Every structure is written in C-alpha cells, then in structure tokens.
Write the structure tokens for this entry.
Amino acid sequence: MTEKLFCFGLGFSTRLVTNHLREEGWKIAGTTRSVEKADSLRAQGIEPHIFSDDVPVADIRDVLKGVTHVLISAPPGGNGDPVLAHHAGDLAALPRGTWIGYLSTTGVYGDRDGATVTEEDDLIPSGKRGRRRVAAEKAWFDLGQRHGLCVQSFRLAGIYGPGRNALETVRSGRARRVVKPGQVFSRIHVEDIAQTVLASIKRPNAGAAYNVCDDDAAPPQDVIAYACGLLGMDPPPEEDFETANLSPMAASFYEDNKRVANDRIKSELGVKLRFADYKAGLLALHDEILAKINGAGTDTL
C-alpha cells in the first residue's frame, strides 16, 4: 500500500518533509490558504486543498481516504486550534494507529530564567501564544488517546533556514542587536526539523513530546554579530532591551529565557543534528549564498 501524508499547512517547516517523502514514493496532499499557491502545489505533484481558520477543507472525509499519516503546522488562534475546530471528528474516524504529528513550540515551557527544560518539565507558558499552544497540544493528545491515534508533538525552537535567517536580516538592513542581560534563545535549522519528523514516522511513539532544537542556546545579539562577520559587515550597535523601543510582538519574544534540552530526539529517534549550533547553520547558508552568486558570475554580496 502506498503511504499518504496529509499536511494541514504546507509551509516552511513542512516542505522538506514532504519533498523527502515524495522522493520515497509517498503521495502528498495538504492545505494552503490561496488558490494561487494551490495551483503551484498541484504543478509539483501535490494534491492541494484550501483551508483557513474560517474555511474548512471541502469534502474532508473523501480527502482523508487512504491517508496514513497527518502532519499539522497550522497554529492555534483566538478560537483555538483551527484543525480540531473544523475536523476533529473527521480525524477521529481515521484508522487506529494513524500517525499524527503536531508542530508545537518550546514556548509551552514559559520563562525559566535561563534554566534548562526537558520534556518532563511542567508546561507553564508566559504569554497568550504559549497558552494557546499548551491547550492545542493537550487537545491533540486527548484526541489520540480517545480514538487510538498515534499522536506526537514536536516542540520547535526558533526556526531558521534558507531565506529566513540572520544573514537575510543583516543583508536587508533590518538587523538590530538588542541586549537583555542573561537572555538566550534556542534555535533549530529547518533541515533538522525535517529529519526529526521523518525519524518519528519510522519510530512512532504515541503520546510522545520531543524538544526540537540545536545544542547551543545563545544570546540573539551574538547571532547577529556572527552573521555580520560572515558577510564582512560591521555589526549594528548594541541596544539595551529596556530602551530599545520594540514593537509589542518583538518584545514578547524576550519574555521567555531558557535553555532547551534535546537529548530525547537523539536517544529515542536516533537524530544526529546536521547543524548543532547557529554557527554551523549560518556558515552553511552563507556558503549557499556564495555558490548562487558565483554561479551568476559575480563574487560580491
């Protein structure tokens, strides 16, 4: 039987997963918000469906026929998890043992004043987004327990990768080095998200939660400085967090200060990180930028 993956949200964090599985002969279907994106996905051999917070997937029961795995990257909103709000009953009708992966966030742990958290720690989120994630995780695990579905949660750290990273921020002129003493963030390259999800598909573990992050939680200003060094640019001046005049959204990212342990993905799933820290990840991305530029006939950034 051909395996089939359905993704609620075919975006930055899921596309490497789908690309890999397509190469292995899987059928891929999933959702997008726009007709234009749906046309693009169809041209790539992916079966597209329109879905958003207020638009459920049409004819979902027919759509889910033959689906063996489900991956959810759609975030919860003010009215809760949109996938569960529209399609909890439809997913509950899937065969027992169906693999379901939920892309969550390390924000579920809240602020730990720089201490290290593991998957065994209590979930005590600091802000509204974190509380929504905790509620969504619980709802997914409850659905799995009630209906015999193999639900796993992947708690992602700050995501970066091609087109979305500190190098691009610096090159665009938007980089700032905001310093909050003692503040660190954990990060994860999108390729390591993909390999963790793929490893879970091969080693399903109902009810498991996995921290998905690299080995080096680091201050954000250090990441910007390293990116500037790779690009041969002077780093922007440091700004004190208390007087930095950040937007409410930007300031909210500084609410939580913690280091995230990733031992479980290594011991249970056999993951060997391709990018163990932000320096390895940014260096590889920088090399990709240089290769593209040199291929175009110039050696300048």
User: Anything to note?
Assistant: The chain has a mean pLDDT of 95. Residues 4-159+189-212 form a domain with the Rossmann fold fold (CATH 3.40.50.720).
